[in-house]
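Sequence design from tokenized structure. All designs in this work follow the same two-part layout: the structure record, then the generated sequence. An example of the structure record is given first.
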């Protein structure tokens, strides 16, 4: 039995060797060049603006080029929630006591900063506290007051014109309807929504330069026309969120996500931003780019809300104070 098994085993080995010898040799495949490693932009998992000390852990940011509508809505709303935590004290950065002051200040804010408007309007409203007063004002005297805001002749014409319209058409009261507000000289949809949202509590989206820049960076929309941006972004959120959303986005654009050099390394929504890396990503260098209360500097309002002061914000200085 042992001899038979040995013979059988030897035969099998001989057959396998013959088959191997008979099989044609495979041609060696040419060596392929390894593909270059793809550069990956990373963003901090948590807000570096709220964390002191060591740099945070990293997480890959995936540009949402093929993002579904549902995913876009979820990401957009999450960004708004994150910003609400960062800026719980967000508010309109124009000083005003009533709708008339707000509509005038908003018209004056074109092509200048809210700070410069806030430094200028105290003198204007001290001399012309009501629409009736401003409607009857000497244009040259108003021009002199508004000179620091730039384009002061055109702005003088607008604020006197809208004051006359308020007196003649609305009994000296600022109307609370969009269709009425946009009929006033110098008042467009952006100004109207500022007034409706902040003086009347009626939801509206304020599409200023900061808002336009950020929503395109976040790929919420590719539109460039303000009215189309307003419609596209408005469709992502409940109407009740529109006014606060505007504040959150505009505040973030002024403080962190700047036009020329965003402070990406100090951004609380970096993991959600497809444009992460356009600006400074080093946390320590990014902190130096922060503005207003985030950077420890005065804000834009001379009379800011108490919540802003409690958060470390400082009132802006009056005109001529520095």
């Amino acid at each position: 039995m042992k001899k038979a098994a040995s013979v059988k085993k030897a035969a099998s080995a001989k057959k396998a060797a013959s088959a191997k010898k008979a099989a044609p040799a495979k041609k060696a495949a040419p060596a392929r060049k390894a593909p270059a490693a793809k550069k990956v932009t990373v963003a901090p998992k948590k807000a570096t603006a709220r964390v002191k000390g060591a740099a945070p852990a990293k997480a890959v940011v995936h540009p949402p080029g093929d993002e579904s509508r549902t995913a876009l809505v979820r990401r957009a709303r999450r960004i708004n929630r994150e910003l609400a935590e960062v800026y719980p004290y967000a508010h309109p950065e124009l000083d005003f006591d009533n709708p008339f002051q707000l509509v005038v200040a908003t018209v004056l804010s074109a092509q200048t900063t809210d700070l410069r408007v806030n430094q200028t309007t105290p003198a204007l409203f001290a001399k012309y506290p009501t629409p009736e007063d401003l409607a009857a004002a000497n244009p040259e005297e108003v021009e002199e007051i508004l000179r620091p805001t730039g384009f002061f002749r055109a702005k003088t014409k607008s604020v006197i014109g809208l004051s006359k319209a308020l007196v003649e058409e609305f009994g000296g009261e600022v109307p609370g309807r969009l269709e009425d507000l946009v009929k006033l000289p110098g008042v467009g949809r952006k100004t109207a929504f500022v007034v409706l949202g902040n003086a009347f509590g009626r939801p509206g989206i304020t599409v200023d330069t900061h808002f336009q820049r950020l929503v395109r960076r976040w790929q919420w929309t590719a539109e460039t026309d303000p009215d189309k941006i307003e419609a596209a972004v408005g469709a992502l959120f409940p109407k009740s969120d529109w006014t606060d959303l505007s504040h959150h986005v505009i505040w973030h654009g002024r403080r962190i996500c700047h036009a020329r050099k965003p402070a990406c390394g100090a951004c609380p929504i970096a993991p959600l931003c497809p444009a992460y890396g356009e600006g400074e990503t080093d946390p320590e260098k990014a902190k130096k780019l922060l503005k207003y209360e985030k950077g420890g500097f005065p804000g834009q309002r001379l009379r800011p809300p108490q919540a802003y002061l409690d958060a470390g914000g400082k009132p802006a200085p009056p005109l001529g104070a520095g």
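DSSP finds 14 helices and two strands in the chain. We note this feature because it recurs in several other targets discussed in the main text.
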